[in-house]
Design brief:
It is a single chain. With 198 residues, this protein is mainly alpha-helical. The chain folds into 2 domains: 15-63, AhpD-like (Single alpha-helices involved in coiled-coils or other helix-helix interfaces, Up-down Bundle), CATH 1.20.5.810; 67-195, AhpD-like, CATH 1.20.1290. It contains 10 helices and no strands. The longest helix has 23 residues, at 154-176. Mean pLDDT is 94; it is low at 194-198. Residues 49-130 form the Carboxymuconolactone decarboxylase-like domain. This is Alkylhydroperoxidase.
């Protein structure tokens, strides 16, 4: 891999050097998405650790949970924007556009969620994510009150905390090693809601 198309500051294994389970995941991603996310390739250097991370990440972000997919991706983009993590802000910005069919709001959230047109529930989740990301030592029980006022259950609050925690960790891995987002993410779900293909 040349320096112009590097996806990580560390070495990246090829098909022959990757763990068997990782290769299967690459093949599944290629079949489902049409490409292999660079984060799958960049973390494959330590195959067992990557697969353990992916199992939990996939459960939190992609499976049916207590929060909606759009809410989980909203948290991902807010946290990634605050941490200035290029890979995660770009890739999960694409996912947020996909789940909301609203590219304007998704792009605005990535820069400053306070400027986005959000519901009160969404804004409460964003404010909570911001405090937990930027000043975790200042968290108090009272920080849960705005979430409960918006009707979030304890299970939903716990899931929000887990998603926020996951992205703070993943942002740091991605930023520390210079992960580069796939070009495909920049183009995904860019049509306005009334221009989406049927």
């Amino acid at each position: 891999m040349t320096t112009t198309n590097r996806i990580s500051w560390l070495s990246v294994p090829d098909e022959d050097g990757a763990h068997e389970g990782v290769r299967k995941l690459w093949a599944k991603a290629e079949a489902n998405m049409g490409f292999v996310p660079n984060v799958f390739r960049a973390q494959a250097l330590n195959g067992e650790q990557f697969l353990a991370w992916w199992t939990y990440f996939n459960l939190l972000v992609n499976k049916e949970g207590h929060l909606s997919n759009a809410e989980r991706e909203l948290l991902a983009v807010v946290v990634s924007g605050l941490n200035r993590c290029v890979y995660c802000a770009v890739s999960h910005g694409a996912a947020l556009r996909h789940h909301t069919l609203d590219p304007v709001t998704a792009d605005t959230v990535a820069v400053n969620w306070r400027h986005a047109r959000l519901s009160e529930r969404q804004a409460a989740l964003c404010a909570f994510a911001e405090k937990l990301t930027l000043t975790p030592a200042q968290m108090q029980e009272g920080d849960l009150a705005p979430l409960r006022a918006q009707g979030l259950t304890d299970a939903e609050i716990l899931e929000a905390v887990q998603v926020i925690g996951m992205f703070n960790m993943t942002n740091r891995v991605s930023s520390a090693l210079g992960f580069t987002p796939n070009a495909e993410y920049h183009e995904q779900a860019r049509s306005a809601p009334d221009q989406q293909p049927s």
